[in-house]
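User: Predict the full complex structure for these chains.
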Amino acid sequence: MVFIINAFQPTRESIPPPNVSYQQKQTSGLPTHLHPLNPFPFILRAATVYPDKLALAHPDVEYPTFFTYRIWAQRIQNLAYALIEAGIQPGDRVAVLAPNSPMIADAHYGILAARAIITPINTRLTPPEVAYILEHSGSKLLLIDRGLMQLVQGLKIPFIVNNDTGRIGDPYEDFLSAGRRFSAEKGWAGLDVELDEGAGAVLCYTSGTTGRPKGVLTTLRGSYLAAIANVVEGQISKDSTYLWWASSLAYPHPLSEGNVLLNNRILPMFHAAGWTFPWANVFAFATQITMRTVDYSQIWKHFLNSGVTHYCGAPTVQIGIVNNPAARPLPRSISAIIAGAAPTAHLIGELEKKGIQPVHVYGLTYTYGPFTRCYDQPSWALLSLEERAKLMARQGQSFATAQEVRVVYPPKSEDDQEVVDVPKDGKTVGEVATRGNIVMKEYFRDPEATRKAFRGGYFHSGDLAVMHPDGVIAIMDRSKDIIISGGENASSLAIEQELASHPHVLEVSVVARSHVKWGERPMAFVTLRQEHVSAWKGKHNVFGDELKRYARTRLPGFACPEWVEVVEELPKTSTGKILKTNLRTIAAKL
Amino acid sequence: MVFIINAFQPTRESIPPPNVSYQQKQTSGLPTHLHPLNPFPFILRAATVYPDKLALAHPDVEYPTFFTYRIWAQRIQNLAYALIEAGIQPGDRVAVLAPNSPMIADAHYGILAARAIITPINTRLTPPEVAYILEHSGSKLLLIDRGLMQLVQGLKIPFIVNNDTGRIGDPYEDFLSAGRRFSAEKGWAGLDVELDEGAGAVLCYTSGTTGRPKGVLTTLRGSYLAAIANVVEGQISKDSTYLWWASSLAYPHPLSEGNVLLNNRILPMFHAAGWTFPWANVFAFATQITMRTVDYSQIWKHFLNSGVTHYCGAPTVQIGIVNNPAARPLPRSISAIIAGAAPTAHLIGELEKKGIQPVHVYGLTYTYGPFTRCYDQPSWALLSLEERAKLMARQGQSFATAQEVRVVYPPKSEDDQEVVDVPKDGKTVGEVATRGNIVMKEYFRDPEATRKAFRGGYFHSGDLAVMHPDGVIAIMDRSKDIIISGGENASSLAIEQELASHPHVLEVSVVARSHVKWGERPMAFVTLRQEHVSAWKGKHNVFGDELKRYARTRLPGFACPEWVEVVEELPKTSTGKILKTNLRTIAAKL
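Assistant: Here is the predicted structure of the two-chain assembly.
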């Protein structure tokens, strides 16, 4: 680690008393052999075992901050008491609107320590969406980054601004310091332990492509078990360093066009509670580096100099990483946890050349992030990169603490509660379903939506997939992304995977476009690799024909794209997913 | 892995049907977001993800057996149905009396799959002790290794004998084959899921040095969480191979003298359910090798040729390992999980020279095995081996899924329910106490003993320790091992640690012996290192004086041994713990 952390002095109130005890209040109501699962106490154990280890580094800002586990734990205690003093009661929602920063990391612990529920809000949303979430969640308080104030103009919710300085005079620091007054008196043993492990932990709102955002409520038990699964699956340890990044750019931003965001994004802490990684890393005693912005050169600096071992991101972000001029073979291997879409053979090859080991996982906000993983098999070592990539592109099998993943037939009627598996033939398309500890508790204040999603005691994901004979699922599409071409179901994902194998294609997205004869036909939007952009300049039609010919050698007729549009960039959500709705709108207008 | 596993053909009934489904029965009674924690389904996930990976190797016997996850899972299913067909009901106890072997590994899954409780019995016990355990546990059936029949002569319990051949004609194999008839019809979905994660998992009997053995009942939830903790702490993964060994020698044996066993032992599967490692290894998709016997040369063969990465054992066993003529630096590092006593500087140095990384943990049958670990600190790299060993000898801080460990004052009266910590001064001796998910549920059929052990909502271990300022506990002694010398409390453990640093001492044990003037005084029993045995032959008294002089330079007067006895070997329990009761008897007679 190259950080010169001595240059930063945490506030006096961030320093724990000399005889600090990390013992929680005694839980006299519980049997001796039980304690409720809860990820918040991970910080107490880390502060006990590795008090002076760097826990949280926030280096790439005007006022860099560095917190050891001992200091960070004290700040979390201060936050918990400050929240309680501000009137936060058990079960209350506390909203957080912030890019990756120590404050949102604190919030994942301090809010739970106060027995409240953290409501992280996507920084990419519009003011009316933010207002709706604050209203629907009934949040009593908002912790907000100074750069995002324009999202809450005119709203009445009480808030604490974080200037992200870690210095005295920063309103967030003053809030923490105020909390310290009570924490000094009472310490950890003064905080009531949440006895119900089924109590709410996180309330996330899904940024649905249509309709109002829905609140996804998760539990303490689920958060604990999902975090541990991420530690085991990622083999995170005390020698690990996890890199967080995301864009700090918020609405309205010059690079955004209405709702369409042109930058590539990666898993930020505000998205599905960062897939429980804010807890997983602490459980493993790892170090976390938070970057407010996405800056590939800076990312490579951290890869090369800061001991980074783990990060998460969608393939689009991984493409940005391998294509950066600073990219080079790494002195030590890094685990890249890939989700959101399947990595292509080309991407896998490029990552591996740099010493980055891709781990392909699949998950949703409803499942605390990843709940399946494509487990690599020893036999794959004998395969070509392309063959291996085809197997790796599948979404895999259930995660360490997840219950089984199934692919099931759609309901026969509104009231159909039977959950029946499709055959394990790699062909029959069904819906991905699962149940168990790492499934959300409910849609917040929406029993009707919960009932529908939990048909037959299983959570139904809305993702369409096949089940292969080896028990591995492969996502075909979201229900609405299937293209019904001449009566056949064409998977836009399968088409994209074939088109992506063309050597000149950087990224591709396929949507349905209506067709007089066939009902629907696939339309492909593609971006070209940097080195081929100029060659095809002014000849996009010619490339389109070339790609259509290429497709016909690899896909059945009904799945071949009828139209190909070469674009400079694809529209994406804040988490790097391609916004197919926007592409559909464009396709409809053509 | 050098095993030639093709030489072995599992029985026809061990081979799953071609379209096997690993899906359990649907649990319609539970909320969608809950599934009860239970370690048994680990095998279903392993068989799904790595069906053809070697799960269980049993190579060092007349009829070697090798089971992949797919085959092993089928055998477990057969066992579950065979048990149910034999009349085993949910909550019933099924006893197992066996050395490390596939049968006892099966039992850790098959018995739980039948919703029954596994009762592993120490193979070192006498027939009356075994009879008592079978009677007290109310076991309905016994799975017994052919080599241990003399332990149950004349008892009426129904039993299945395992000849440990894995071949047709072996009564245990016939039992499994019978189970297959039902499993073929019903599969995994035919087995009821245990909905209560607080249900019993294992009933172990502690082989107390005095009095009747006590039954320690653990839960499914605790077993699940303790197993995962062992995976995380041990960093076990699909690339790991765990080596089990133990002596198959049973009572009466030519090497035993009454109750005193002269061989060194290590953690066998029957001891505290092998500290949950039978489940931990499967959760991590690791390979397990089972050795019926302890044979250091054979162990080194496995170290060098079988890809071993993990094993557990007391320091006495580790001494046997490093002193074996086959010992040499290993091509890849092995984790040695050490418990039962603190490793000495000499032992740590010898292990590290071979590429064996010692991990010092502390635990009890009541805590599913380890619940604290001595976490190594980065700053230790700068210390001398001796200084580092002193720090590593401490028992550490709480384990991944354990709740906090405390050192507390003894109760002031019979009814004292207050649990008060001793100061963190590294001096004040108190009792080790803990609570939470990895504490036993109860003493089986002994509410009075449970009530006493759970005073004030904490489990009281009976081990005496100090709490260091850094939050690390260091065991001083079992309550009864404290020597009250001239009114001072002398820790026999602390004395042993100092005496063990003498370069000629191999092992040492210190007990109290009554003394006219001082009440009690320490007496040391020592064995000499191989290379010094002949030099001191016939001059044991001279060496005793030399060791007493050595002690006076390192210990306070009241803690110096008044007597030193050089012996050839120290008496030990089946798990390698030195039998101080025997030494006390000898000391009393002198």
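The longest strand of chain A covers residues 505-515.
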